[in-house]
Amino acid sequence: MCMGIVAGLDSSSGFTHVVVCDTDTGAVLREGYAPHPVEEKATEADPQAWLLSLGEAAADGLLDDVQAIGVSAQQHGLVPLDANGQPVRPALLGNDKRAQVAAADLVEGLGGRQAWAQAVGSVPTSPQPLAKLAWLARHEPENAARIAGVMQPHDWLVWQLLGRPARRTTDRGAASGTGYWSAATGSYRPDLVELALGHQAALPEVLGPSEAAGMTPEGLLISAGTGETMAAAFGLGVAVGDAVVSLGASGSVMAVHHEALADPSGMITSFADATGMHLPVVHTSNAVRALRGTAELLGVEGGLEELSALALKSTPGSSGLVLLPYLEGERTPWLPHTAGTLLGLRRESMKPEHLARASFEGMLCSLADAMDVLRGRGVQVRRVFLLGAAAELPAVQGMAPMIFGTQVVVPAPAQYAALGAARQAAWALGVAQGTLSPQEPPAWRGAVAQVLEPGDEAAVGAAIRQQFKAARDQVHPGAFETGAE
To answer: Which domain holds residue 162?
Structure first.
């Protein structure tokens, strides 16, 4: 018998998407959508805009009969609050890069990358709330002095839905991205907040995966909520043995693991997930941007689709042509000041189709390098979920299984972060009703997906990777061993 109906809302950087689901199966019953009333690519936002977007997305009775709500939201945003709980200034968003120098100073302030990795499982970067606090202290000292508490977007939305109670909460997933909470110890490092901001600030209580943040005045249960990455992983249903490769302008590889990883090189960021497990993540600075750059260089007017078709006219190994796709420097390996490199130029390899294929092979080999960083720390990878619009390209689907050397799953497009938030709401509701265990989330149907096998081409993929590695080691010898240029 159906326990009820729940909703998951995902407040992304540019929109709010709401899904209303059956608690037993996860079947989507209805959906709502609304853009955020903010400028595209804005680095700051009035948090009230998120509420306006939520109200619009949930209009026309969308939430009728809903018993619980889960909230997913954009990560790495900072909502600085004064002593009365009012924003000191507009929220700083995750795409704000102004804190790069502040992040570098923080790294040195604690004694280097290894010290940070051991302290909180990550090395400060400009998107993190911690770096944003340091930037505010340096560039807006009057605002910084007024900060009495800090929240992230999902924390703030949950707090608003609950009527702004005295208790402020977050979850371990979102907390693990702040730079001042350790997934390994499950505790805050308030001394790091003071290091960045110059004084202490109130931090939200960290809830467990199946805990409820509270009840709204109307009687709706609000679950702990989480960040978009963790919600999407939960919505996809990934488990131990699964890795998720995300193809954006930059790239990332994350996997489900049973423990937090402290990586001395700083290449692994140790997030917590939405189930009680961990999500170690390795980022690359370059992914689809290497494809787009190659398309522009070749004068391909049909975009990535035409580049994909051109690449498939070449053969595995791109006639010996290798592209090291480090166009914006690189995080994995740690080569922040390098540039991309094209090797293997011979008369027979100087054809558009070979360069096109080399761009795909270079991107995927770089991501395979990132996956090997996780495997080198004992993380199991038996299948790979491939996300992003580029995952639909025939060249990516043809090359990924052989280069990764494992089964590749391409999920059908869906609002996985919103689905993960809804699944969390169903879990918290089931625990409250006594029908679910706090240790076992509801078993919803997995994502509809296309499954690709490496088959007999795994050996070909291994040869492509060896060719890439030889080129990488020629240009950047010992990059992965030393963690530096």
So the answer is: 5-224
